[in-house]
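Here is one record:
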Amino acid sequence: MDKDVIKPAIAALIARIDSTLVQDGEGFPHYADVDTGRWVRTPGGDWTGGFWVGMLWLAAWKTGDSKYREAATDWALRLGPRAASKSVFKGFLFWYGAGIGAELFSDPVAQALASAGAEGLRDMYNLKAGLIPLGADAEEAGEVGNDKANIDALPGTLALLMMKEGVSGAADIAHHHLQRHLGFCVRSDGSVCQSAVFNPDDGALLRRYTHKGVTHDSTWGRAQTWAMLGMAQAMARGDVSCREIAIKVADWWVGHLPADDVAYWDFDDPAIPVAPRDTSATAIGAASLLKLAELIPERSQVYRQVAMASAAELIGKYLIPTGAADRRQVGILTQGCFNQKLKFATANELIFGDYFLLESLLVLDQSLVATRI
């Protein structure tokens, strides 16, 4: 992929960070109108706030500009109270909001927050069931509580629990958490079912379903990529027990992407080819494949080629570029589909889509080692 394409796209995404920093309004950017660029914000970060902080850490890493690191530290501190929340999705908040700062900069504030997040996750662990449940405070799940699980609970959570200077016993928890979720959610053909209900006394699977998909049996795009990302983060930190499943899940993604390498929101939507796309799922997929390309040598060329093709398509057709003829805000990634089932932010800019596109481009630019974060 030509660096003459990558560099302007990175510049556009950093310009979007700049415009977000000065935009009025309180709270963490959540999703935005692509025409006005106005962010809908969440006071405590919901499950997405860590991705905004993660973008600031990445901007600091790429540019060396202290203003981004200072902003990242400030925003990360605002996540602090969430460490005690009864939601497994705080793994997203504290890995992307703090763990990345600890990994890239050895930032002491980020290290302390990442440890607090990992401790909060450890405290939710159900030893009998062998996993961390969604929890009573889990955001945006169709059903919540201590007998529910969700494939979204792997990324970030595993990375936090497996940090080098981590919490005692957390790596073992991460391993069991990973294995239980793969057993719940990965189908025999490599496709991924989003959610499950289990017996909290022994971890036995009672029911699986896809609460954000077109049907309970469909393959929702982000479910597939969250599984890929979680396994890549685990493998990068030494747990290779999921290697064969990771290949099966990634190969399913590669084999089922549309010809233009941009995913539909759900692979089983009967409205395809006029169903909504999801650029956020596509960006997560690209970031995941770039990690797996480093970890699985025999699939490296295929995974990297597909990741580059997806990134190129996102840049060329969905990212508002620097010097765009229209008047929309530079750096907006359009056509993110937050929740098609509820008709919620179905063609918007999503903060996590922005984050994963920036991460992917920094890897392709050789500014960042994919498996480091």
User: Anything to note?
Assistant: The chain has twelve helices and six strands. The chain has a mean pLDDT of 96. The first helix runs from residue 3 to 22. The beta strands are 28-32, 39-42, 148-150, 195-198, 205-209, 349-350.
